[in-house]
Structures are given as C-alpha cells and as structure tokens.
Amino acid sequence: MKRVAFLTSGGDCQALNATMRGVAKTLYETDEDVEIIGILEGYKGLMYEKYVKMKPSDFSGILTEGGTILGSSRQPFKQMRKPDENGMDKVLAMKNTYQKLKLDCLVILGGNGTQKTANLLSEEGLNVVGLPKTIDNDIWGTDMTFGFQSAVDIATDCIDRIHTTAYSHGRVFIVEVMGHKVGWLTLHAGIAGGADVILLPEIPYDIDSVIGAIERRTEAGKRFSILAVAEGAISKEDAALSKKELKEKLKNNPYPSVSYKIGAEIQERTGQEIRITVPGHTQRGGSPCAYDRVISSRLGAAAARLIKKEKYGYMVGFKGDEIVPVPLSEVAGKLKMVDPNSSIIKEAKNLGICFGD
To answer: Of the residues 12, 31, 89, 136, which is catalytic?
Structure first.
C-alpha cells in the first residue's frame, strides 16, 4: 500500500481544497491500493502528530470550497531549527511523525516559507512533493500560483465598485491591495480595474509624481482618481534607507499602513477629499474562480504523477501553459518579483497609468 500525506501550511487561500482533490482523485484513479493521511494545522500537526485518515468521500464536493479542510498554521522557517518551548527538536519531531505513519510521500501545499521548509525536509531524507499556493504569485519557478487569479478577481471587483462612489462624490480613492513584498496582485487588479495610479514595492514611488498624475486628471476635468496601492509599496526616500534605518523610522510611523500615509500627503498637498479602502482578507476568502479550479486540478494531477513515478524533491509549477517539476532546492529562498522593465509595466504606462516613478 502507498501511504501519502497532505499538509497545508501558511496563509489560506482559494483552491487549496481543489488542489488536494486533484491529487487525491488522480491517485485513486490510478492506484487502488493507496491511503491518504491528512496532517492537521500545517507543520504544527506534523510536529505534534495531529492527523486523520482520509477517505475518497472526503474529497467530494470540495472543488468549490475555500480555505483548507485540514486547517493551517504559520511556522516561520527561521524558527524551524530552534527547539519549541519544551525543548523539542521540531525537525526531528516532523521526521518521527513521517516515519511513524510509514509515509511514502508528503505532499505540501504552501507559499515561500512553506516551500523552504519542504526543501529542508527533503534534504533530511523525506519524500516530498510541493504545490505552489499563494495569492501573491511570488513563488520562484512557476508562472502562476493557485489562489492568485481568485484574489485578482476580488481586488478588481473592489476597484470596480469604488469607481461609482468615487465618481459620484468627486473623490480620490486609494484601494490597498495585499501581496506582501511583491506587486503582482496590485498590478493585475489595478490594470483590470482601471486604476489611474498603481504603486508597487518593486517601483519606489515619488509622491510628487503621484500628485502630478492626480492634478493632471483634475485639470482635464476628471471628477475622481483611483490609486491601487500594494501593501508593500515604498517611497523612494524610504527605499534609500538601510533596513535598520527603515525599521527605526517605522517605529514612529503614525499611520496604520502606507495607504494612509499617501492619502494624508495627497490631501495636504491638493486639498482633495481622500477615502481609503482596505479589502484585506476578503481577497483570500471564498470560492476559487474557474481559472484557479482548472490550474489546481492540473497541478494536483501532475503531483500525483510524480508520486506514481517516485520522483520526489520537486515542486510542481507552470511554465507557459505546461506543467513542469522544479527542484525544491531551486525554489527555496527565492522571490519572484515584478520586473520594472517588463512588457506589462511598459504597456500599462502606455495606457497612461502612473507608477509613481
């Protein structure tokens, strides 16, 4: 009998369940003698032996279900080699659980930190297959992550709805979009939603440039302006600081996020009425969109094929429209950033979108 365990780690997002379903259905279709174990609450469950034996019926009806049926937790990679509060060796504990369950493979669904730990476990001798989950789309080695397009759709819908109230009241609206340290989500939602200004972490902004774009719209008779601002957006002044200097500066920061800082500066300089919208975790919630259901099903099936071939130590990724295995050792510790000189940025600028540079 082949024994395979599933583990979902880090922040939740749409299509986690759909991806597990893709792996399970393919395994059940191609191997009658397979048992699937669900590790509960991410790496925490692997450390403390929290798991359930799963049945084919557990994967029925979850294609459209958001979140994760296994639960999740955040276990920072930099803490993995540090003993817990009781002195337990976390890595050894995870290996012991793997061996106790007599697993043939551990399927790990998660983002950057999750894949780093997946690579660590692979280097420790465990058979691991990774799957790229994050609304940020920042995992190196894959063009697309599941959860990203669903989050784009939600953030775009938010910007769409802001348009009507912004026009009605003649205001400047700032929509703060998630994405951690990268701007993929803000870039795609900003273009799709018709934002006038898009601010990304990869392109430090000059507030004069941002205000100039707003003033040009006002002079042209436009009643409103909409800014799509990444939660990790940073000014040119702050980008020039060292990490230590920036950390010290942020200690005295009176604003809850970068959007409020930008809003205050715009209102002071232009006198225009500013409103800020933060859709927050709504971008990670709800059912996966059709696109995510398709790619998660494909990624899941591809992961099952790797398991059948006993090809371990890989993450399953997209290159173009093809699915490819990418060594976890190449994925771990790398971020896929937006290239400021990429064609999508140039094309957006051709449309008249200001990036604050």
So the answer is: 136
